[in-house]
Amino acid sequence: MEEPDQEFTRQILQKVRQIEIRSNRLVSEALAGSYHSAFKGQGIDFEEVREYQPGDEVRSIDWNVTAKMNAPFVKQYREERELTIVLAVDISASGSFGSIEQSKRERLAELAALLAFSADRNNDKIGLILFTDEVEHYLPPAKGQKHVLRILREILFNETKGKGTDLRGCLRFLNRVMRRRSIVFLLSDFMIPENGDEEEPAEDILFKELSTTRRRHDLVCVRVEDPRDTELPDVGHILLEDLETGELIEVNTTDKAFRQRYFEKSRDWVEGFEKRLLRRGIDCFGLSTDTDYVNRLREFFKLRENRRRG
146 and 69, same structural domain? Predict the structure, then answer.
């Protein structure tokens, strides 16, 4: 009979292998070219100016050189061959919740795997930040499938020290260690704890840090939710526990008006949060533990591709 630690190691490797196989297949079949079209070419270096030719983009005209030469000249750029992707993943206690087959953390792990394998397929570097109410683990950006598999193992099985969530602290750490402009995926349920000691609301403080990060990097916020985050079933009196603080509250789910208020408040918060992100030029998309995240990712890639071409 295997020792408990050997059995646990075997389970880890099996889970990682399952996600690796699924992710590689999805990257090949469903997301082939989508990642490249969405992000490649946004990191570009100036190369030279040359005379305008029919068919050139008018917006690429260098008006200073054009004025000096009395003829239209355009700027030429060289596409940066290598991008840097950073996955900043929330592994706080609230991510362990799941009312369907998967927890929010498992769903984020699968999405992170898709992003990592897509980046690896395009020969980009991938880095990882795992955080709770502190930065738990940091892997500097690197290349290669072994590195991608290590990222996946860390997301799924890293033993956390904290239970809470400090999104602001994660972003501050990111801005300190990542000097080069990168594409940052911030993956979280964005359940923001109250800050009773400060006058300014916690969400407003967070948005200041999000705006700072947006100026330095290409920031994408990915929000994961469980169906029970927005809708409660009619199951009588139940005791709900905040997984991060341990706070308990009893609610009566037979009260239809209460369930409706719960739903409306949850939806209003989500819509308001996403509008605040978009007003600051921060891309965002959501996914649930009970829906197809591959389609959501494909839709996001398509949106980015259309924006580049527009």
Answer: no
